[in-house]
Amino acid sequence: MEFSFERQGDRLQLHLSGRLTFADAPRFPKVLDGLGDGLSACEVDLGRLDAIDSTGLSLFVHIYDLARAKSFAFSLRNARGSVRDALLRAGFDELVPVA
Q1: Which CATH number do you get for residue 65?
Q2: What is the pTM of this model?
Q3: What span, in angstroms and rounded, lies between the C-alpha atoms of 89 and 54?
Q4: For residue range 44-63, what is the model confidence (pLDDT) as tens digits?
Q5: By residue range, what is the domain housing residue 31?
Q6: Domain count, the chain
Q7: Dihedrals φ, ψ of 38, to 5°?
Q8: Structure confidence at residue 5 as a pLDDT band (50, 70, 90)
Q9: Beta sheet of 41-52, edge-to-edge order
Q10: Nearest-CA neighbor of 65 among 47, 49, 42?
Q11: Which of 8, 66, 79, 95 has the fewest CB atoms within 10 Å distance of its CB?
């Protein structure tokens, strides 16, 4: 997994690419640390994410919990193929906008 942040005022875009799997779990704290205070929204761009497993999905649960605790909006964008299928099977569309 590769990730980068793009901040515009109080809005943050997190870009993920490659594969988001169990092997990436040790990097999740670095991603979460990038979601600092003062956000009104965090949009996760999945357009370059090729694959995800259940551990990868757990990153979005952590972001969701953080968004609720810090009162910022959270959405998942540009999911496609097997990544989109995994998000829908796991019911993420019932928690956050998945586009």
Answers
A1: 3.30.750.24
A2: 0.94
A3: 11
A4: 999 999 999 999 999 999 99
A5: 2-94
A6: 1
A7: 80, 15
A8: very high
A9: 2-8, 11-20, 41-52, 73-77
A10: 42
A11: 8
Is the Cβ–Cβ distance between 12 and 5 less than 8 Å? yes
Report if residue 32 sits inside a domain.
yes
Report which of 24, 14, 5, 78 is spatially closest to residue 46, judged by C-alpha positions.
Answer: 78
Answer whether residue 99 is part of any domain: no
Query: How far apart (Å, rounded) are the C-alpha atoms in residues 66 and 1?
Result: 21
Distance CA 37, CA 77 (A): 22
Give 89's contacts (C-beta < 8 A, 6+ positions apart).
none
Q: What is the DSSP letter of 63?
A: H
Give CA–CA dist 94/6, Å, rounded. Answer: 26
